Amino acid sequence: MNEYDAARIVDQLQVNCGYQQTDHPEQADLILFNTCHIREKAEEKLFSELGRLHKLVATARQQAALPPALFAVGGCVAQATGAEIFRRAPFVRLVFGPQTYHRLPHMLARLEREGGQLCDAEIATESKFDELPQSQRVGAIASVTVQEGCNKFCAFCVVPYTRGREWSRPVQDILTEVNHLVQHGAVEIQLLGQNVNAYQGMDSTGLVHDLALLIRRVALLPGVQRLRFVTSHPADMNDDLVEIFADIPQLCAYFHLPIQSGSDRILERMGRGHSRADYLGWIDKLRAVHPDMAIASDFIVGFPGETEADFQETLHLVDAVSYDHAYSFCYSPRPGTQAASMADAIPAPLSAERLARLQERLNAHQLQRNQQRVGRIEQVLVEGVAKKGSGELTGRTPGFRKVNFPGPAEWIGRIVPVRISEGLPNSLRGQWTEPAA
Ligand code: SAH
Ligand code: SF4
Q1: Sign of the torsion angle spanned by Cα atoms 186, 191, 193, 199
Q2: Residue 435's pLDDT is what?
Q3: CATH 3.30.750.200 fits 255-372, yes or no
Q4: CA nearest ligand 1 atom 11, residue
C-alpha cells in the first residue's frame, strides 16, 4: 500500500505541481520520504536516511549555489510522530499523513508563500481518492486501493492509529480506476486493503458489495486478464470469497491469509478474533476449491508471553499448511498499542533465535513447493528484463512465484507459457514453450 501511495504522491507532484522525478538527489528541489511505522526498525531507518541524505544534498547544493532542498516526510511515521519530527530533524519543513497527501499541492504552495514549517497529519474526513489525478505510469501489474484502515485493534498493531478506521471505496470509483489502468497497459490488477476482505462498499444504486461481489464486478471489465487481492483477515472470511476461485478464471490462485501465531493462547492474547482451527478450516476450503492454490501468510515471533511450547505450535502449523510464501518478523513493541504495556516481554536474542528457526522451516517449504513446479507449464506475466545484459525476462505466475527465462523484450506486458525447469529458494527458472500469442 505504501508503494501505491508513493506512486499517487508522484502523480500529483507531476500533474498538479510541475515536478519531475530525478535519480540524482543533489539535483532535487524536493526530497520526500513516504514512511512505514509498522515496526520500530522502519522508523529508525527514516531518521538515519534523512540525516545521511540531508548531509549529502546540503553540501552539494551549496557548492552549486542552489537553494536548499525542501525535505518532506509523509506516511505512517509522520502520522504517529507529527511535529516531533521537526525536533529530531529540524531541516524537515513538511510533515503529512497517509490520509492527507491529496492536499500536498496546497501544502507546498503555502510553504512557498509563507516559509517556515508545516504539519498536516489530521485523519481527513474527505476522501483523498476524489482529489487525486489518474495514475501516470502504469506497469503490467497495477494496484488499486479498495479499502483502508482497520477496526480490529490487534494488541501489537499500529495500523488502526495511523491509517484510521475501516473505510471502503465506492464500487464505481474502483471500476473507473481499473478501467483507466487496463486502458494504459495493466494486465493484472491487485486490489489492496489493510483488511481487504472487510470490504463493504456501495455501488451507484446503493447496493452494498462485499469483496467477493466487488471481484465479480471487476472481472467483468474488458481487459482485466488477471486479478488478485491482498491482505485478508481470517475473521473476515466467507464462503463466497472461496467459491469465486472456481467461478472467475481471471482470479489468480493465490491467497495471502496471515495468522501471526499457531498457538491459540497467543492468538487470544493478540486479540485476533479467530482460532488456529478456524484458520486451518479456511485453508482446507481454499485448497479444495482450487488444487493449485498458493497460500501465503505473515508471522510474528516473540510476542509477550510466547513460550517454547507456543512457538512449537507455530512450527507445527507451518508444517501442516506447507506455505508457498510467508513474511515473518520479531515482535516490535509499538507506542500506544495494548501489547506495548504487557508483561512477559521475550528477550531480543530469544526472539531472534526463534525467528531464525521459523524462517528455516518456512524456506524449506517454499523451496520444496517451488521444486514441485518443475516440469509444469506456468502462465507467466512478463514484468520486465531480469538483469541487464542477461537476455532473460522476469515475470510472475498466478501463484505469484517469480520466474526468470530467456525471451525477447517485446514480451514484456504479455502472459506467456513457460515450462519450469528449476525450483530455487525464491524463484523458478524455465523456457518458453511456444511463441507468445
Ligand atoms: N491486516 C493484516 C496485516 C497488516 S500489518 C492482518 O491482520 O493480518 C502487516 C504485518 O506486519 C502483520 O501481518 C504482522 O505480521 C506485521 N506486524 C504488524 N505489527 C507488528 C509488530 N508490532 N511487530 C512485528 N510485526 C508486526
Ligand atoms: Fe493490524 Fe491487521 Fe490487526 Fe488491523 S487486523 S490491527 S491491520 S494486524
Answers
A1: positive
A2: 55
A3: yes
A4: 38
